[in-house]
Specification:
402 residues; alpha/beta; Rossmann fold; 6-stranded parallel beta sheet; 14 helices; 14 strands
Amino acid sequence: MKILLVNKFLYPNGGSETYIFRVGEELVKLGCEVQYFGMEHEGRIVGNRVESYTSDMDFHGKGAGKLLYPFRIIYSTEARRKLRPVLEDYRPDVVHLNNFNFQLTPSILYEVGRFEKKQGKKVRLIYTAHDYQLVCPNHLLLRPLEYERCEKCLRGSTLPCIRGKCIHGSLIKSILGSVEGWLYRRLHTYRKLDRIICPSRFMAEKLSCFSDLSDRLVVMHNFADRPSGIGQKKGGYVLYFGRYCREKGVATLLAACRSLPEIPFVFAGSGPLEGEVEAVGNIANKGFLSGEELAGTISGAAFTVFPSEWYENCPFSVMESQICGTPVLASDLGGTGELIDCGVSGEMFQAGDGKALAEKIKKLWLDKERCEKYAQGCMQVQKRFDSAEKYCRKLLEVYRDA
């Protein structure tokens, strides 16, 4: 089977890239051919045979080319033009989409349709939902100015995106995002997707609010392989690993850390709040870690904290912690609760409640027996998580049945 994995970033950048690279590796091991399509970038690590990619769009940079961004983020003729030779050369059986809005745009769905008609060949279109981009213009179900969770665009108009300046707090960007959402709803573009893989039941529930999506949803939790580099003595610190940003609850966690100077914390990651992380005396900032170094850091923690304040989908970090035998103290939003057995492998608290978070951290830190019990409980929970190989075997069934 020939599979074309599509994602706007083809270099390590976040969870969706972790997903496509690992899925691609495993599909090759299972006998499939795999190529990739997305943006060109100096850090790109995967590609396609004809070396055709879209130009890099940096929304935070400068340059005359940015004048065209308002048009290109709604419909990209370049993405269609660059995808065309890939399709014609590779002739994939499956195009598996991941994050594509703004940089690639849904225009690529129309190019796949054009290829099908020209070649008389059915190409199955699969999409893995890493966020809420099909139903929410800013992808997060979060109003950034008031910093409130929001579901106003789920069932009807995308105008609330404009009123709330939901995309980076910018009126112009929010108008463009609203227009994009309205346009592709009106055109019923997403009916072109044969299957939509939802990594959590919570995600499926939100996407099912849009009738064009509701009859093609498949729930498949993310995979989690047991890493090497684990097994050292536990308990010397409390760990946060992930992006240092507000929606991840890092500001709330930092306040808790400052109120608990007797507890040593380790942070592993990067992001816009890095300066604030560095300023807290009882936090050791390890920066971005990966592979065995990250696994060892997770394994050595008494427990990890996952304080996210947006509707998380199926966070790899919560799974990775339990795979390493480390309990999780997590906020109670989105699909996170589907991954933790409260009282077995960890505990939960109300998202954004800094006082409750600090109290839970202190109690768990002082109760070594409970931490050990939860560490043992992680062994039970992790049995539910598919390995990448098992996940990809299920993925092949989705491809065949689409």
